[in-house]
Amino acid sequence: LDLENGLRHAIEHDELVLHYQPQVSLSTGAIIGAEALVRWQHPQRGLLPPVDFIPIAEQSDLILALGEWVLRTACAQNRVWRESGLPPITVGVNLSARQFTSQDIAAMTGRVLRETGLPGDALELELTETILMADTEAFTRATEGLKALSISLSIDDFGTGFSSLAYLRRFSIDRLKIDQSFVRGLVEDASSAAIARAIISLSHSLSLSVIAEGVETREQLAFLYAYDCDEMQGYLFSRPIPAEAFEGLLREGR
Ligand code: G
Ligand code: G
Ligand code: MN
Ligand code: NA
Prior knowledge:
This protein is α/β, with parallel strands linked by helices.
């Protein structure tokens, strides 16, 4: 409960901060996107990773205020980048299941886009397979509302859940994110490599784009390139970094 109250205070007093991890095109090497990842600059405990507070926020409606703060901050930041003549990128924001069940997410997102002036096609929302499995009428309406705003939808940690492939079509998914666990074993483990290849080919068969997460080595990158993966994200290129550092990378065009 202490942490919950602390977190409520943190949202209201700007103790949260976003770091951005670059997403890179494998064909051009250019940065094409940024995943926004929240941290809590805790006054006593230092910079806390999301695992330390997102699960707590998810136990209450606190996740709604936190989620809206993240969305607004990421959209406002990307608007600033776009206005400053940097190469245009898409910003990706992670969503929790409760953000679909406890509010009208399309209305909230539409409001944030209007208020920040960011075009919908410069925003990607990351869903998990668990969220997708909530195959309800309300969820269908929510995703239709988001698509009507020209927002991209991706499936995070793809391959670790149990979603049906039919959902990819039904909910107009744009991109799959290959889970890090498959990328980690790409070079040594035949079954990880087979799964990664299968996800890439599935994506292309359905005209989705596909990004590999957690790319740490040149060998993994070479495999992904050979398998015709579209994009990569991982420590090999960059860790998640503060906005100013990200802007530096974008400006250098690397
Ligand atoms: O940032 P890290 O590098 O530690 O991220 C760990 C986990 O926290 C990831 O699974 C990510 O999806 C989740 N996460 C990070 N930022 C957010 C956020 O703004 N909202 C939600 N719901 N999850 C987030
Ligand atoms: O939302 P998601 O679960 O995909 O969050 C991505 C998480 O993966 C974040 O915690 C981020 O810091 C982490 N991450 C990103 N790239 C790498 C990487 O190359 N290696 C490892 N081990 N973790 C990574
Ligand atoms: Mn993610
Ligand atoms: Na992921």
